[in-house]
Amino acid sequence: MSLSQQELVVDQFTRQAAGFAAAKPILDREALDLLLAATGAGANDRALDVACGPGIVVCHFAAVVKSATGIDLTPAMIEQAKALQREKAFTNIEWHVGDVTKLPFADRTFSVVTSRYAFHHFEHPGAVLAEMVRVCEPGGTIAVMDLCVSSDPARAKNLNRMERLRDPSHVRALTLTELSALFDQAGLPEPSPTFCAMTVRLDHLLKASFPNPGDAQEVEKLVRDSLEDDSLGARTRMEKGHLVFSYPIAILAAHT
Question: How far apart are CA 225 and CA 104, in angstroms?
Answer without folding.
Answer: 45
